[in-house]
Amino acid sequence: MIDRLIMLIRHDVRLQWRYGILAAYGVVIFMTGGLIWFLRDLMPGWFISLVIFTDNAPVGFFFLGGLLMLERAENVRDTLAVTPVSAGEYLTSKLLTFLTLSLMAVTVVGIASGKQINWPLFVFAGTITAVFYLGLGAFVAARTKTVTGYITSSVVWFLPLLLPAGVAFLDPMPLWLSILPTAAQLDLILAALDSERLSYLRLFVLTLSASGAAATAYYIGVRCLRRDFGEKS
Hints:
Layout: H1 2-18, H2 21-39, H3 45-56, H4 59-73, H5 76-81, H6 87-113, H7 119-141, H8 147-162, H9 181-193, H10 200-229
């Protein structure tokens, strides 16, 4: 399994380089980091957190669909379907490569912000948010056949999940609203960027909600991709 996963990661990196995805990521990271750096004295912490939540952490969501569409057009999944590669290994490879790039973007913005950051919590929140949206991206991509269809469907799924996160700006957000996974994700990012000390109960509840949503999204993404790969041990 490890050998197959390494092979898939190498394949993904080559594809991302060939189709300019890595270059596009570099531009996004450079422009966002530079903008935050020059305007950090004018930008409140909540705004920078919102940029991370809506742009940096889920940026793989937007590129994932394009990559999956390209692989479908090139019959890559049809080829892999007759190999021992499973849907879980396939999506895990995509997740690891895009997650690495998302965390690079999140880290650059964090450094550029000049804030006193709780880095362990900051990286964790960025990771959980990225995994959640990558799983959602696989779910949407498995149901669409074109890039245009993916973008349209993404809006339908993305906005209803994103908008409830606004309750995280309540000061403080009622703990019961942590049942909204995106609100829990954003609340963790806000706390990490301001180096806010969370109670053990609040940290546990937010972590449980955000982690549970990420794991569920990943599982759903794998289940959808099994239509192409079948059930494999």
